[in-house]
Amino acid sequence: MANIIVVVGAGVSGLTSALLLSKSKANAVTVIAKHMPGDYDVEYASPWAGANFLPMSTRENSRWERRTWPEMKRLAEEVPEAGIHFQTSRIFRREKDMEGESCPTDPMFDRDPWFQTVMPDYRDLSAAEMPTGHDSGCEFRSVCINTAMYLHWLVGQCLRNGVVFKRCIVTHISDAKNQSHEGKEASMVVNATGLGSRKLGGVHDESMTPSRGQIVLVRNELHPMFTTSGTDDGTSEILYTMQRPAGGGTILGGTYDIGNWESVPDPNIALRIMRRIVDMCPEIAGGKGIEGLSVVRHAAGLRPYRTSGVRMEKEKLGDGTWVVHNYGHAGWGYQGSYGCAERVVELVNEIREDNGEDLTDEPKLFSWE
């Protein structure tokens, strides 16, 4: 008898969870969501992401990123249609930021980071390689993701494995168990609703809040991608850039504004973003200043930030339905997607084993293992 599973949410976390769950023929997986790849809505965070791989976790909580990197690397090497390519990444530090109040991305700027043994070609930068106003930094090989391509690629991989997609709105997590394409009640529900978990009945996680990210997408090309430890324009304003593959344009960022729900781009912030980028890398605009930037669009998205960190756990509802939670990834949803989805499968399999199933012949989740 198939394990009937409904995944709620079609962002990168929900899609990756569905993909790994679908590798077992014992699972019948349905993805339900209000928003699907191709939609652009402020409630739907995944299309707005950059996205790239810049480790943000502490050493103690690095499993999600450690387990995701090998698969992202494999996709960049072997699966061009996924929309992922390699880019050199540079991280620049300012001493005054390192001595100030901590921010959600602080571990990225550690002088002795855990990821130096994980990311390829890691090296410390010399003083001569520092942009004006910065004191130290590092470089390594990373990836950038064209989210418009990658989300659709994930859908295609899920469909190949028999996953069924349904547009559906649920107001309570328990309602999801009745939405399986099998026409039967699901025994397990995966909650990958991101910021929606704040208002979703049966979850109501008030520790969920947006971390607003405003960006400018331009046609100009720049290599390598980089990020800095801070700016002089306020603690919520940050500086980073990355070039998406396959003509996806270059992302100029940005902001990390916790608690801000505003969906409309602020023109003053946009000017500061462009000015910071051009001041650091005049070559991106051909030496012409902001006027040399070819803007595609301005955008703002809401990262699903959770004050206590990502929620990865199982919960049994009063009616006996199991829920596996996978939400609260803030700005690292893509770079932790496979590690977190792997944990979803582990939790689902724990439930299956408790139900007396023999999982001896379950397939490997990753081809690189």
From TrEMBL:
Residues 5-347 form the FAD dependent oxidoreductase domain. PROSITE patterns: DAO. InterPro entries: D-amino_acid_oxidase_CS, DAO, FAD-dep_OxRdtase. The keyword Transferase does not apply. It holds the Pfam family DAO. It comes from the Eukaryota. Its cofactor is FAD. The keyword Isomerase does not apply. Keywords: FAD, Flavoprotein, Oxidoreductase. Belongs to the DAMOX/DASOX family. This is FAD dependent oxidoreductase domain-containing protein. It comes from Epichloe bromicola.
